[in-house]
Write a structure and sequence with these properties.
This protein is α+β, with helices and mostly antiparallel strands and 432 residues long. Among the domains are: 139 residues, Adenine-n6-DNA-methyltransferase TaqI, Chain A, domain 2; 160 residues, DNA methylase specificity domains (Adenine-n6-DNA-methyltransferase TaqI, Chain A, domain 2), CATH 3.90.220.20. The protein has a 4-stranded antiparallel β-sheet with strand order 4-11-8-9. A hairpin with a 5-residue loop joins strand 5 and strand 6. The longest helix has 46 residues. It is elongated and about 80 Å long.
Length: 432
């Protein structure tokens, strides 16, 4: 983080003093220190009939639930203990503060009693947006989590009493306002830059998918003569390509482990077939994996229950996998398994799987081998199959490299953002 700090080329205060507080270090000499309970008072307001629900999100946004999203929330049958929230309140989510759920409400409304709604005790002494930034900075640095008295399933209590005991820096009120306004402006620019780069990543991924789709369904020659494939989900294809049902292309491998000692594999939509990172399935020792399916290199692996979501990949490693997976190989050397792994991963085939499956159980759509084998697939000449896969490998590598650069840029922006906030709210830089 030090190299990021150096990039924040701003003036510093002329004199600093040591606080002796680990989460503060030194602060400007003209800043004072006060406990949170002397700066803020917790409110317990009655709710109004017209009040809508206010939610405090982990990104620091505190707004009406209807402004952000309307699904994915637990709906309380009885709003027992709900309290009034008012625009300008400093709101702390007691159980999610450790993850950054602290901010200033932009709306009037009501909230669950698990929130602490705070107002300044003295007018123009404590500016809520400044202290929201300060507390979120503590949260992002892990300090709030370190205060935990008790941990509940991924959440750590940070109640008003905990906040009240903290010594907080107190710049002059105009300075608090200036710092908060400065951060609002700078962070908006940083966040916009991050959004642009994230969109660029999405466009790169879309470009990759378009190129792959075109390659596996049209080949690499843009001038090739086309014909109707006879498959409505594919449409026009090169004139010299053939078509066969998958029963003539693939052969199921149904070998089972006799020891359960082989490497346990998992299938990821984005990473393909990989060693299973979690050892939960080995909890009962190797005996529990006896009967798992053998996977060889260059086997096509399909998750029966998630095939419609694209969990299809060619394995480059050997091991064993769950009986809920299907494992296939090509029937002869005139076929390239990687080509069929790419072809069957196209959205047209994923949609088709939903139409042909006969196994639906407890909400899961199971793609059985009999269903798969009834589907027709393209059969380019083997030389073209291999050229298509070489092309896909090349563009995938180039696009992955480009995405990697964008991801590093995003990480740098996030580091800069965190460092800028920390430097501003602790006085390491001087905001005019």
């Amino acid at each position: 983080m030090e190299d990021v700090v150096e990039k924040i080329a701003m003036a510093q205060y002329p004199v600093y003093k040591e606080t002796g507080i680990k989460y503060l270090g030194v602060i400007p000499e003209n800043w004072s220190l006060k406990k949170g309970k002397w700066l803020f008072a917790k409110q317990e307001r009655l709710i109004k009939d017209e009040d809508e629900i206010v939610t405090c999100f982990r990104d620091g946004t505190v707004t009406l639930r209807s402004n952000r999203k309307i699904d994915g929330f637990t709906i309380a049958l009885k709003e027992h203990g709900y309290q009034g929230i008012r625009k300008g309140d400093l709101v702390i989510h007691n159980m999610d503060a450790f993850a950054g759920a602290i901010g200033v409400s932009d709306s009037d409304g009501k909230s669950t009693p698990v929130y602490s709604a705070c107002i300044a005790r003295v007018e123009k002494e404590a500016y809520p947006p400044f202290y929201a930034y300060f507390l979120r900075n503590l949260a992002k640095g892990g300090f709030i989590e370190s205060l935990a008295k008790g941990i509940r399933e991924r959440s750590t209590d940070f109640r008003f009493d905990d906040f009240g005991k903290l010594l907080l820096p107190v710049p002059e009120y105009p300075e608090q306002t200036a710092i908060a306004n400065f951060l609002d402006s700078k962070i908006a620019l940083i966040d916009q830059a991050i959004i642009i780069k994230e969109r660029q990543i999405e466009l790169l991924k879309e470009r990759k998918q378009i190129l792959i789709h075109k390659a596996v369904t049209r080949g690499l020659n843009p001038k090739v003569k086309l014909k109707d494939s006879g498959m409505e989900w594919i449409g026009m294809v090169p004139e010299h390509w053939g078509e066969k049902r998958l029963k003539y292309i693939l052969e199921e491998i149904n070998e089972r482990s006799k020891t359960g000692n082989e490497e346990l594999l998992s299938l990821s939509k984005y990473k393909g077939v990989v060693p299973k990172s979690s050892l939960e399935e080995r909890a009962g020792a190797a005996n529990s994996l006896i009967g798992y399916k053998i996977v060889y290199p260059n086997s096509l692996v399909i998750n029966k229950m998630q095939a419609v979501n694209g969990l299809i990949a060619v394995s480059k490693i050997s091991g064993i996998t769950s009986p809920d997976y299907s494992v296939y190989k090509v029937k002869d050397a005139s076929l390239n398994i990687d080509y069929y792994g790419c072809l069957l991963s196209q959205q047209e085939y994923l949609d088709l799987f939903k139409k042909v499956v006969t196994g639906v159980m407890e909400g899961f759509i199971r793609l059985y081998t009999d269903d798969l084998f009834r589907i027709a697939a393209l059969v380019p000449p083997i030389e073209e199959q291999e050229m298509i896969i070489a092309f896909i490998d090349s563009i995938s590598q180039k696009i992955s490299t480009a995405i990697g650069f964008k991801e590093k840029e995003i990480e740098k922006l996030k580091e800069y953002k965190a460092c800028l906030i920390n430097s501003a709210v602790t006085g390491k830089i001087k905001v005019s």
